[in-house]
Amino acid sequence: MRKEDILGRWRIVDWRQDYDDGRCTYPMGQHLRGFIEYSAHGMFCVIEKAERPPLSASQWTAAEADKVSAYSSYFSYAGAWEVEGESDRGTVIAHHVEHSLYPNWEGGIQRRTAQMRDGLLYLSARFEDGTPEARSANLIWQRQA
To answer: What are the tens digits of pLDDT across the range 23-47?
Structure first.
């Protein structure tokens, strides 16, 4: 897959985490919204649970429980990106994270394996290998016009 094939905005269709022990979870539920955009200037990803409840006060004065709920129902990160090459599982895309709601990713590289099937972009990643939480994150995206 070439970089030109990936450029553009893609709407999230599904985000599933498949654990090595057989568990399957949906981090933002099965009703989610968001997009990933790849451009010549960088990439940006935002995913949220559909129908997030509003905070009971401003973002600065809301109760801690409301803030935790808001944080837990929204995810985003952005930075530069590049196609690193091909692997036996697909095209390897490197996201050089500059900004992230999850600060641990900032300054790091998030690699995704990409495949294009039936007009959909499939991105997958491995997390926490060698632990009881080892899993594959599998996201499906549909190109937006």
So the answer is: 999 999 999 999 999 999 999 999 9
Domain boundaries, the chain: 3-143
Q: 3-143, what's its fold?
A: Lipocalin (2.40.128)
From first CA to last CA, the distance across the chain in angstroms is: 20
Let me know how long the chain is.
145
- Provide the pLDDT confidence category of residue 4 given band limits of 50, 70 and 90: very high
